[in-house]
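Q: Here's a chain of 136 amino acids. Please give me its 3D structure as tokens.
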Amino acid sequence: MVDYNKVYKRYYKMNVWIIFALYLVGLLVAQVTTHSYYLNMLIVSALFSLITASIYGGAWKAIAASSPAVLGKFYLAGSALRMLLAFLTILVYAIIVKERVMILSFAVIFMIFYLVLLAFDTIYFSKVEKNNKTNN
């Protein structure tokens, strides 16, 4: 039997460490390149990542505990919703800033966070599902 709460806590803890590592690397790059405006971009990217990881993990835990048969649909819908939210975040940033170089810099930083965490989610939950199938 899978302890969904334990899986969620481990998922969230690993997400926090990955986001923290990406943030520190971003700070280092900002320091080396003397682009202090990267700081706001890093903060927005890290906050978006933390919030979406928390919501995605919590929703996974609720669905896995109540109706694990629909997890395949959840993975698809959750990823699509997160992609839409990411697009909207970049769009809102573009509307607020209106400076092409800043928008491109933000989009690159944001997409690094997004893609790294997307890869992590895919690997993490594929292992969870694999362990679920071998245990059942």
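Q: Can you summarize the key feature?
A: The helical segments are 4-33, 38-66, 71-97, 100-135.
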